[in-house]
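Record now logged underneath.
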Amino acid sequence: MAGVIVARMRIRGFAIASVTMAALALTGCSNSQESSTATTSAAATTSESTVAGTKIDVMESEYSIELSQQDFKPGKYTFVVMNHGQRPHDLAIKGPGIDEQKSSTVTNGETTELTVDLEKGEYELWCTVGDHKDLGMDVKITVA
């Protein structure tokens, strides 16, 4: 038993040392204000979402889809899907120029993104999980 605890402590110690070494490598072991600012900016940039085009928040729950925007013009859109429900959900879209594209499936509290180029015309957005579409997770939008 004591050997298992020591082995676990060594593994944790190695993991902490690896993370520390990686952080030092990123900062270049420098104490200068300029280097510290550059590292902070780089960290902030990499932690932000890389949304292409216009961002549309999509709130999904049992059994509805709510969009943060109702008026659409042709262009690139990123649908940021947030699951506020208790069951898994995803988002699919089809319409002019899009046979069918689908986001990953997310559980409660998780977020996923789906980026598409919308042309003029009508599009359908729905959840493909089980019978969620039939239960009301089906929205139509018009791009004008």
